[in-house]
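Tokens as discussed.
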């Protein structure tokens, strides 16, 4: 649970955010693979075709909207590690949520990680005391409470209901929604290529979710 944010944070201190979005676009497909390995789900070939098409569409979408793929470097290894850590965590979390419940799984994960997180937080505060504006603190609070905690209640509940291979493809919509909210909140400009690419990504995700599994 901590592997994804830690690895992406270190990687994005060097690599641009758009570069990270390209690699993270592979997360839905990676989650589906882990769900097959751990959950013994057997999606048909049509699902893998749509999952691959969705991953490719998401990568191209991120490349068009960002600064391109560029050359691979050591931050990319951290990003790929983050994708692997998140995919394994989602698959294991989905299985645990079937036994413990969704909010219980997330809450117990935080309890188990608390000693390490508290130690790292204390070290960070000593080295660099935090300072921010009220708006920045509010944004931080939203990320902590809603995005990183309450949001996972619904996510793990969805994975528990499953099939995890199909539910994981909903993540393809994340970069599209991020750019849409950036346009709405930050008034960033939307181009026709962005709208068209986002539509293709959403269509691939919808088709992958609707394919009947065995």
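Sequence:
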């Amino acid at each position: 649970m901590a592997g994804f944010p830690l690895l992406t944070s270190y990687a994005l201190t060097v690599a641009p955010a758009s570069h990270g979005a390209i690699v993270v676009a592979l997360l839905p497909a990676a989650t589906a693979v882990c769900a097959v390995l751990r959950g013994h789900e057997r999606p048909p070939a049509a699902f893998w075709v749509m999952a691959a098409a969705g991953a490719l569409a998401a990568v191209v979408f991120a490349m068009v909207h960002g600064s391109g793929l560029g050359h691979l470097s050591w931050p990319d290894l951290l990003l790929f590690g983050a994708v692997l850590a998140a995919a394994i965590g989602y698959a294991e979390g989905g299985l645990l949520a079937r036994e413990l419940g969704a909010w219980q799984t997330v809450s117990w994960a935080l309890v188990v990680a608390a000693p390490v997180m508290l130690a790292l937080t204390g070290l960070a505060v000593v080295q660099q005391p935090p300072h921010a504006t009220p708006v920045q603190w509010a944004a931080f609070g939203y990320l902590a409470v809603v995005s990183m905690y309450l949001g996972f209640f619904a996510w793990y509940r969805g994975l528990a209901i499953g099939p995890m291979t199909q539910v994981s493809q909903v993540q393809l919509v994340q970069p599209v929604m991020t750019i849409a909210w950036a346009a709405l909140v930050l008034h960033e400009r939307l181009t026709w290529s962005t709208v068209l690419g986002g539509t293709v990504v959403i269509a691939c995700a919808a088709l992958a979710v609707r394919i009947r599994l065995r």
